[in-house]
Design a protein that fits this description.
Helix content of chain B: 55-70%
CATH architecture of the largest domain in chain A: Up-down Bundle
Oligomer: heterodimer
Protein name (chain A): Acyl-CoA dehydrogenase
InterPro entries (chain A): Acyl-CoA_DH_CS, Acyl-CoA_Oxase/DH_mid-dom, Acyl-CoA_Oxase/DH_mid-dom_sf, AcylCo_DH-like_C, AcylCo_DH/oxidase_C, AcylCoA_DH/ox_N, AcylCoA_DH/ox_N_sf, AcylCoA_DH/oxidase_NM_dom_sf
Structural class of chain A: alpha+beta
Number of helices of chain B: 4
CATH class of chain B: Mainly Alpha
Shape of chain A: globular
Low-confidence stretches of chain B: none
Order of helices and strands of chain B: HHHH
Shape of chain B: globular
Number of helices of chain A: 12
Keywords (chain A): FAD, Flavoprotein, Oxidoreductase
Mean pLDDT of chain B: 89
Distance between the termini of chain B: 13 Å
Pfam family, one (chain A): Acyl-CoA_dh_M
Structural class of chain B: mainly alpha
Distance between the termini of chain A: 28 Å
Number of strands of chain A: 10
Largest sheet of chain B: none
GO molecular function (chain A): acyl-CoA dehydrogenase activity; flavin adenine dinucleotide binding
Strand content of chain B: under 5%
CATH class of the largest domain in chain A: Mainly Alpha
Helix content of chain A: 40-55%
CATH superfamily of chain B: ACP-like
Number of domains of chain B: 1
């Protein structure tokens, strides 16, 4: 195993850090409090090239080729330098669950139509898989696509969709043949404004509040044949292709945040004095810092290993599950430790320490819950 | 190959002492016999044992529905 990165990869990460520090110096207190999404921030990232990391150059992409390690390092840099955790989360969701499936399965026309617009930030993409009765058991979905002349009629309800209320193009999964189970799932590109398609309001949530989440409704929504992504029944394959990438890079943003969180906590406990000395001198405090460092380093090793394996085209079921489980749970633990070490300022919103804890909780739920990751690990061990 | 695939699916993936015999034309994923993880483990087994690489685009019902279709697919890739 060789986790060393090229000079170009490391230079790009540094470039992202410098960009994000300059572009996003502001406080996110108000945006978090009022659940405000910033299209301006989205556009800044697109102009820099972050939304093009999963797209080949000929369709508006950023690099000469799609490189998962570069994407991970870029997200790590964004997570480190931008205090809005939702931004890295949202970009990552579009990269791997919308753009990448189009790269793999799209027709030439679909690639030309959707990819340059998403890379440029003009269009925002959503991945619509979950339903009220189909969460972890996603292939029990009820949304149907009925074949009609020239296309399909979609009927159903998707929920908890990242960017659902604001998305311009939605990758929707529906069953074209319920008798075939998972083989009967087909993917479609639905566009904002299509007749029979309604986007719900933002649903307030505990964390990641700058990312709108909402429901999508399809009522006899006609989708032309040319908007089907891949052949009928390719939905299972499409979701599989994107989820491992998504799990890997979605956590890269958190890794950057955990690095910043550690540095900020160390600086605070060195400066804050009680009983005549810096509180970092008290072992109860420094032990928590040591634990934060350990979680950060183990998370790095797990993340880089998965990125390295995926870049080589290897399957990484066990490694991805270990990474997702460990890192999402670690972010919660380290966020709690950061709050404990800050005392009251850690608990009060205005100091922007507690927000990481709220943002972290989603990580043990989205893209496969911690319970599901444990199931995967134990199954792979033969249980 | 049929026998080897059937044994792996039955013993390692289904792993249920009460399970009977796997029919070679039985739908593995669509019937729920295997879940997504099971299918991906099967793909890993095929790649490791038969020296082929399975691209994502090939994970279709035509290629991976049953032991029979998998055998045909693997032979076509060799």
């Amino acid at each position: 195993m060789d986790y060393s990165f090229s000079q170009e990869q490391l230079a790009y990460k540094e470039k992202v850090i410098a960009f994000a520090k300059e572009a996003f110096p502001e406080s996110y207190l108000e945006a978090d409090l009022n659940s405000v999404f910033s299209k301006e921030a989205w556009m800044k990232c697109a102009e820099f090239g972050l939304q093009g990391l999963a797209i080949p150059k000929e369709y508006g992409g950023t690099g000469d080729e799609i490189d998962l390690i570069t994407a991970c390092l870029a997200m790590e840099g964004l997570g480190y330098a931008c205090r809005d955790n939702g931004l890295a989360f949202g970009i990552n969701a579009q990269l791997w669950t919308v753009e990448y499936p189009i790269v793999l399965f799209g027709t030439e026309e679909q690639k030309k139509k959707y990819l340059p617009r998403m890379a440029a930030g003009e269009w925002m993409g959503c991945h619509a898989l979950s339903e009220p009765d189909a969460g972890s058991d996603v292939y029990s979905m009820k949304t149907t696509a009925t074949k009609v002349d020239g296309g399909y009629l979609l009927n159903g309800h998707k929920h908890y969709i990242t960017f659902g209320p604001v998305g311009d193009v939605i990758l929707v999964f529906a069953t074209t043949d319920p008798n075939k189970g998972a083989w009967g799932i087909t993917a479609f590109m639905v566009e904002k404004g299509m007749k029979g398609f309604t986007q719900g309001e933002n649903r307030p949530k505990m964390g990641l509040r700058t990312v709108p989440f909402g429901d999508l409704f399809f009522e006899d929504c006609f989708v032309p044949e040319e908007n089907r992504l891949g052949p009928e029944g390719a939905g299972w394959s499409i979701t599989n292709s994107s989820l491992e990438h998504d799990r890997c890079t979605i956590l890269a943003g958190q890794l950057g945040t955990m690095q910043y969180q550690l540095e900020e906590t160390v600086a605070y406990v060195r400066k804050r004095k009680q009983y005549g000395q810096a509180i970092g001198k008290f072992q109860s405090v420094s032990n928590r810092v040591a634990d934060m460092k350990l979680r950060l380093e183990l998370s790095k090793l797990l993340l880089y290993k998965v990125a390295w394996m995926k870049n080589k085209g290897e399957t990484s079921m066990m490694e991805s599950a270990l990474l997702k489980l460990y890192m999402s749970e670690s972010f919660i633990e380290s966020s709690l430790d950061a709050i404990r070490n800050h005392g009251a300022p850690g608990y009060i919103s205005e100091f922007e320490v507690e927000r990481n804890l709220r943002d972290a909780v989603g990580g043990v739920i989205y893209a496969g819950t911690s319970d599901i990751q444990r199931n995967i690990i134990s199954k792979l061990l033969g249980l | 190959m049929i026998e080897e695939l059937s044994r792996y699916i039955t013993e390692d993936l289904i792993n249920d002492p009460d399970f009977g015999t796997l029919e070679t034309d039985e739908d593995l994923l669509g019937s729920g016999l295997l879940d997504s993880l099971g299918m991906m483990r099967l793909v890993g087994f095929i790649e490791n044992n038969y020296g082929i690489k399975v691209p994502t685009e090939d994970l279709t019902m035509e290629n991976f529905m049953s032991v029979e279709t998998i055998e045909k697919y693997v032979n076509s890739k060799k």
